[in-house]
């Protein structure tokens, strides 16, 4: 899950694989734009969906950026499964 200061939730990297140009895009020469707004990506420690490591798409984000792994059995839906951590990330990205 990706939170951008623009107020939108950006598509998750594991889902980007279905977009023209590949999963990462932008800065590494694949498809899709580079994301310049302040961004936090969230990943649950129990996310069973196939997805790349966070480091593999880091170059896509050229503005302020953080990646958080949510622990305690959080799966693929952080707003539902870890609402406090999700809300904290919204506040954090607004302070970037």
Structure, described:
With 96 residues, this protein is an alpha+beta fold. It has one domain. Helix content is 21%, strand content 18%. The protein has a four-stranded mixed β-sheet, with helices on one face. β1 (2-4) and β2 form a beta hairpin. The radius of gyration is 13 Å and the shape is flat. Residues 18-29 have low confidence and may be disordered.
Largest sheet properties: 4 strands, mixed
Task: Estimate what percentage of residues fall within beta strands.
Answer: 15-25%
Overall 3D shape: flat
Order of helices and strands: EEHEEHH
Per DSSP, the total helix count is 3
Query: Strands across the major sheet, in which order?
Result: 2-1-3-4
The percent range for helix content is 10-25%
What's the structural domain tally?
A: 1
Number of strands: 4
- What's the Cα radius of gyration? 13 Å
Name the average pLDDT: 77
| Multimeric state | single chain
* Structural class by sheet pairing and helices: alpha+beta
Q: What is the CA–CA distance across the termini? A: 18 Å
Low-confidence region ranges:
18-29
Secondary-structure topology with pairs:
Elements: E1 2-4, E2 9-10, H1 13-16, E3 39-44, E4 65-70, H2 78-81, H3 83-94
Parallel strand pairs: 3-4
Antiparallel strand pairs: 1-2, 1-3
Give short descriptive properties of this protein.
96 residues; 4 strands; four-stranded mixed β-sheet; 21% helix; 18% strand; alpha+beta; 3 helices
Quick rundown:
With 96 residues, this protein is of the alpha+beta class. The protein has three helices and four strands, in the order ββαββαα. It has one domain (2-94).
């Amino acid at each position: 899950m990706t939170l951008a200061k623009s107020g939108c939730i950006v598509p998750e990297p594991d889902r980007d694989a279905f977009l023209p140009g590949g999963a990462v895009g932008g800065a590494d020469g694949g498809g899709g734009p580079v994301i310049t707004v302040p961004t936090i990506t969230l990943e649950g420690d129990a996310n069973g969906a196939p997805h790349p490591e966070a480091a593999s798409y880091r170059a896509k984000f050229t503005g302020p950026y953080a990646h958080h792994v949510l622990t305690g059995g959080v799966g693929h839906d952080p707003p539902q499964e870890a609402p406090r951590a999700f809300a904290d990330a919204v506040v954090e990205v607004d302070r970037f």
